[in-house]
Amino acid sequence: MTTADVVDLELLKKEQIVAILRSDDTRYFAQTVATLVAAGVRLMEFALTTPGALAALEAIRGTLPDDVRLGAGTVTTPTLVRQAVDAGATFLVTPALSLEVLAEAAKLNVPVLPGAMTPTEVLQAWEGGATAVKLFPASVGGPAYCRALREPFPSIPLVPTGGVSASNAAEYIAAGAIGLGVSRSLIGDATEGGSQSELAARASALLSAVRGGQSS
């Protein structure tokens, strides 16, 4: 991994959307990623709950434009950190706060977005070296909760994930989120062989909603 591969805070702020791919297998991951890239999405997370996710990541990453970044999600142990980095993941995402995962990621100099929900978890994640904090599950509190967390923690970048869609994306951005993790509302059934044209339309709608919700 070179410095050009790093998913830093500025890149997250610029791209704003992390598309999350999760399925029973990776058969349609390559074409789903290609559709997302064509639509303008540049950050993709392969959930490790998908069998073969790391093999797919390693195979697909070499076929993409230089400005596209593939990361590994649902990273829950230091072993998975090492395996993901070996497969070429340029960022990591966790479902919950694990200081062991953060420490291993720091050793390997790989960006990580740890999952956190409570104020205590958010602060611990940031102090532990998070690139940004994945607010998860964001649907529990919605944009209002994101805004409430930003008041005591204005310098901690938040990426709400879980229940985010084109219908509420602008609200999250207006509430202070620097980016959004989006799964089923964006991907739909594309990773199960569903319509790629419908995926492209959803991606376009989501990007329009996010960019339209950007504050000046």
Walkthrough of the structure:
The chain has 216 residues and is α/β, with parallel strands linked by helices. The chain has one domain (3-212): TIM Barrel, CATH 3.20.20.70. The protein has helices at residues 9-15, 29-39, 53-61, 78-87, 99-107, 119-127, 142-150, 169-174, 184-187, 196-212, and strands at 17-21, 43-47, 69-73, 92-93, 112-113, 115-116, 133-135, 158-160, 180-182. The strands form three sheets. Strands 3-2-1-9 form a four-stranded parallel sheet. A three-stranded parallel sheet has the order 6-7-8. It is globular. The model has no long low-confidence stretch (mean pLDDT 95).
Summarize the structure.
The chain is of the alpha/beta class and 216 residues long.
Question: What layout of secondary structure does this protein have?
Answer:
Elements: H1 9-15, E1 17-21, H2 29-39, E2 43-47, H3 53-61, E3 69-73, H4 78-87, E4 92-93, H5 99-107, E5 112-113, E6 115-116, H6 119-127, E7 133-135, H7 142-150, E8 158-160, H8 169-174, E9 180-182, H9 184-187, H10 196-212
Parallel strand pairs: 1-2, 1-9, 2-3, 4-5, 6-7, 7-8
Helix pairs in contact: 2-10
Count of discrete domains: 1
Q: Could you say what the CATH architecture is?
A: Alpha-Beta Barrel
CATH topology: TIM Barrel
Strand fraction:
5-15%
**What would you call the shape?**
globular
Which tags fit this structure?
alpha/beta; TIM Barrel; three-stranded parallel sheet
